[in-house]
## 1
Amino acid sequence: MRLEGRAALVTGGGTGIGEAVARRLHAEGARVTVSGRREAPLKALADEIGCHWVAGDVSVAADARRMVEGAIAAHGRLDVLVNNAGVVRAAPFGKTGEDVLDLHLGVNVKGTFLVTQAAVPHLTRHKGNVVNVSTNVTVQGVPGFSAYTASKGAVNALTVQLAAELAPSGVRVNCVCPGVVETPIFESMMPPEEVPGRLEALAGVHPLGRIGRPADVAGAVLYLASADADWVTGVVLMVDGGATAV
């Protein structure tokens, strides 16, 4: 029960990595609030594990504040913020429109910025911490993901910047960078009949011989969020089965 007595907010917490993180933090004793744009998966998770939920869009300042305020109202404090909400759209660089770029920058960068900004005053009271969710393609380019990579590279840079800026207040800021993880958002990027074959092919890209599971990322987030990492800040941690090691 490494998080007993603490409260956490997980954005994008209804499915995939966010859901796995919410479940793991809850299992370790945290009182969890999940947020996202779709109410149905948030409500389903809340009904199952007894967490609180707030619907909203992280790229909208009023919604970002409301997520943090909802977590405080539900649990009286905030110790851990996991910025997991994100979008990914694949397109060749030359065919990536301004709307696609704006979408990535709005959700992945602005959303992380706004929710963190709203949360920091509360995190400071309890010397809490922030864990951002990025991607390993920020250090290992993959064709077709220029807008996504640019936005997540900004998340990595923001992690390091805030780690330095917030350290005097006792707030730690770290980041995890997953490789390919089997999630609904990943599977939605290809025709259903191609999913099994694509997953099998991608397993070979990871030296550990398989693609990631949401629980793999949740374990890394738990470590960074817990007292086990009390002297760890500004880390951009690859959680990718060794893909960036080769």
Note: The radius of gyration is 17 Å.
## 2
Amino acid sequence: MPFAEVFLSPLVLALFGLCIGSFLNVVIHRLPLMLERDWKQESADLLGVAHEPTPAISLAAPRSRCPSCGHAIAWYENVPVVSWLWLRARCSACKTRISARYPLIELVTGALFALVGWRFGAQPVALLWCLFCAVLVALAGIDWDTTLLPDNITLPLLWGGLVSAGLGWTIPLTDAVWGAVAGYLSLWSVYWLFKLATGKEGMGFGDFKLLAALGAWLGWKMILPIVLGASIIGAMVGIVMKMSAALREGRYVPFGPFLAGAALVVLFAGTERVLGWLRWA
């Protein structure tokens, strides 16, 4: 059996995805802290005021620790999913509960990588789509926690889609360019119509950039299905959260996770099937 068929099989990609999911947990937690630190420093420098420096943090350092007791997490306590089960979802030192979100991110990433292997087969392009899925998981997690879609991720995702199309790896370049344009302008138009009508901002600029990036990867034909799917699911989740008092007054449900989720549905369903659902084919 050729090496590629083994390495790019759904099972191997799933195991690889579990490990990447563990790293994505770090990205989701630390990247907003890194950005906040930089913003505070830049603001202090701009205003010319003293600023108490905060401890340096990156995606690689310092080592992961329990937020409650500071216990340094050993490698065998950081095995995706398995360690969480073995530790019975508690810190080995202070017994503080470890959120189920950590293994959930790992499992979701592993499942998405396996689906990529099933959808695209043992082709090098499968690794490119695995990267696409991993970035969307990271963006969804960050946006859910902070209502922030960092340019550090959305803009490279946009350019990655355009470059990949230009190299002939994904979709025709024309579809990618017009997908980026349609993605950005569609939500930009909704934003301004809503603001002119109500005087309030209904979404952030990060949503425009994310949809532009999705258009660059999936094409202009998929913009409306993504927005429709994200809007329906987002509205349902918002209503449930409101009824269960999980959504505090004055807060809103971020749109990014639902854009990401709808894009993944479109990716795995395929353009023809999605257009068939909408009876546009």
Note: The mean pLDDT is 89.
## 3
Amino acid sequence: MPALLQTAPVSEFAVTVEGLTKRFGDRTVIDNVKLEVPRGCAFGYLGPNGAGKTTLIRTLLGHTSATSGTMTLLGLPVPDRRSEALARIGAIVDEPRFHGMLSGRENLRVLAAAREPEAHARIDPALERVGLDGRADDPVSKYSMGMRQRLGVAACLLGDPELMILDEPMNGLDPAGMLEFRNLLRSFVDEGRTVVLSSHLLDEVERTCDAVAIVDRGRVVVQGPIGSITAGAARKIEIGCSDPPSARRLVATDPALARAVVGDVTDGRFSFELPSGVEGEAFTGDINRRLVTAGIAVHHLELSRPSLEDRFLEITSTLGASS
């Protein structure tokens, strides 16, 4: 792909959204959203089904109009300069749609005809990059869902985009395909592109993205680097030992765990969440010493690393419980 060109105006954010609201009649789908996507990163937009993820993408791209609020793409205000912004953006909304009777290459030729002349020269490199060069001349009707997703990314590359917005791009991929796709997305970021992806595959998002926003019921409830978001999740300790009931009683009487819920013994193990403010590594060593002193042999003691899924479920469950 040709080197990316810097064009004015320059902004540190590829996407900014302020006070964005979208209503369909009496139903609010996007609720006063503020969003900032830094340039040159992979950014995940996460939420349960019906949280408004696809509607926000459609609104950004001008497929539907906002009820209120402001937006910029690559420093350009939209919808005022939408055409100028879209010329520098590649996007997949919902699942990619192509002419089934045409081959992958022919579909890209149709799309390239609507773009600048240089787009035609990008067809073969794009097909090779997404791993479809060997199937480029097969009818798209013969493609699997994963292959159509790849063809959708190839279509995005025809414009040599600075920003890629992908709605559930890993649907239909097997584990090997997900690994290849993850590496592909990271290679785009390494080139200086910004990739925004909406997904419900939390483990893949954690492996792929640098930062995320979690949305629930149309509201962004937390956003930022993944490390800072997972740092807010509860850490768990799992214990396996020679006398789990006695160990559980000993742990439950620790003053530091006054607010913790100690789980039941299952298969010789039990676990509990550390309250906020308790240093996990030091506490784990202290618990181990206390159990051994009490004559309990410890064969498993694990302090879990909070995952993005843990934090996601914690946030969305809390919102559901408080509604």
Note: The first strand starts at residue 13 and ends at 24.
## 4
Amino acid sequence: MTSTKRDTARAWQRMLSGRRLDLLDPSPLDIEIEDIAHGLARVARWNGQTKGDHAFSVAQHSLLVERFVADLRPRAARPLRLSALLHDAAEYVIGDLISPFKAAVGLDYKALENTLARAIHIRFGLPPDDEPDDVALIKRADRMSAFYEATQLAGFSVAEARKFFGAPRGVLPPRLIPMSAPEAQAAYLDRFRRLSLQSRITNEE
């Protein structure tokens, strides 16, 4: 009896929680927030080309994006803010590719990222896909975060950052200090738990 390559190739990753996540067909049941926080706190933004004693992690970036969403829409529902916090959560297993490389890789990469993102949303009680207005808001906050990261940490001039990411408006400029991986992991978990608890309270009222 013979097996196809798809049958024999390993497409899953073992997590520290003990879960085995199939990257091609991810089950929400195999997704744990502790694994996400651990992974994102150790994935560097800008391919690690940032100033400071520590890499600026995707976990810390996600915290900033969630903060900007709240600043831009002060009455944003907790599920939207949770979605903002999780907007790059798929990168805990596929890493953070810079935008030019994502474009070069093409749609297959994006399809894999989107499949993982939908499974993560379902795992934590969110709709598989955000509403278009919410997607636009999170993207705006994401670009604002990229602007400040670029100018404070990644060596971009203000003019360069404005060209690529636009000029931020409507938020107070942050002072970015990269955290250690354990610090970023703890901060991400704490914010997730606060938003999750508040979302459950709101839904029960």
Note: The first helix runs from residue 5 to 8.
